[in-house]
TrEMBL record:
Record keywords, A-Z: Calcium, Disulfide bond, Glycoprotein, Heme, Iron, Metal-binding, Oxidoreductase, Peroxidase, Secreted, Signal
InterPro entries: Ccp1-like, Haem_peroxidase, Haem_peroxidase_sf, Ligninase, Peroxidases_AS, Peroxidases_heam-ligand_BS
Binding site for heme b: 200
Name of this protein: Peroxidase
Known EC number: 1.11.1.-
Residues the record lists as binding Ca(2+) 2: 201
Site (Transition state stabilizer): 69
Domain named Plant heme peroxidase family profile: residues: 64-208
Cofactor names: heme b; Ca(2+)
Signal sequence extent: 1-21
Cellular localisation: Secreted
Classification lineage: Eukaryota, Fungi, Dikarya, Basidiomycota, Agaricomycotina
Positions of the catalytic residues: 73 (proton acceptor)
Length: 208
């Protein structure tokens, strides 16, 4: 993985860190990288660990595609009206025995099996939350694919407290009206919903 790509990914984590614009200083991390906030230093090693142990050395392979897919399945467990889970909190990893039993999550078990032990290792090393791990993996994996956008990564999610409820992921058999209603309940416009559905062309789809 090139340093430029790594710097791009880690820099996106700074959006949740408040820094006095007049006092911005560079911090040199123990691994030799520099950042504007020492809290972000462990992310450099985390990204390298993901690239080596999950993405086969920065490859745009099945693991990268599935990392993007599981990011969505985790995040859609949310409602602007409340009552449908904590959203992008990593609950699909922590409460995988519950959420993998949902019909709409068919085929997600492979990437959970790949990611969970890596999450446990990084959690022990740097106390990264399941949500931060899962969505960092999604951003890193996507960055490995030629022509793909660099996804914004928000650092600082708390640990999930419960599994997302069933029926938050729209099913292929649902009507267009029901699918758009579910996406609207999660805060997406119809155009955004169509774009998300089309992402299966670069993510992954199983058990349809």
């Amino acid at each position: 993985m090139t340093y430029a790509r790594l710097s791009t990914i880690v820099a996106l984590a700074f959006t949740t860190v408040t820094v006095n614009a007049g006092l911005v200083k560079r911090v040199t991390c123990s691994n030799g990288n520099t950042t504007t906030n020492a809290v972000c230093c462990p992310l450099f090693d985390a990204v390298d660990f993901l690239q080596t142990n999950l993405f086969d050395g920065s490859q745009c392979g099945e693991e990268a595609h599935s990392a993007l897919r599981i990011s969505f399945h985790d995040a859609i467990g949310f409602s602007i009206n409340g009552g449908k889970g904590g959203g992008a909190d990593g609950s699909i990893l922590v409460f995988n025995q519950t959420e993998l039993a949902y019909h709409a999550n068919g085929g997600i078990d492979d990437i959970v099996a790949d990611q969970f032990p890596i999450f446990q290792t990084l959690n022990q090393q740097m106390n990264i939350s399941a949500g931060d791990f899962l969505h960092l993996a999604g951003a890193v994996g996507t960055s490995n694919c030629p022509g793909a956008p660099r996804l914004q990564f928000m650092f600082g999610r708390p640990a999930p407290v419960a599994a997302a409820p069933d029926l938050t992921v729209p099913e292929p058999t649902d009507s267009v009206t029901d699918i758009l209603a579910r996406f609207a309940d999660a805060g997406f416009s119809p155009a955004e919903a169509v774009a998300l559905l089309s992402s299966h062309t670069i993510a992954a789809a199983d058990v349809i």
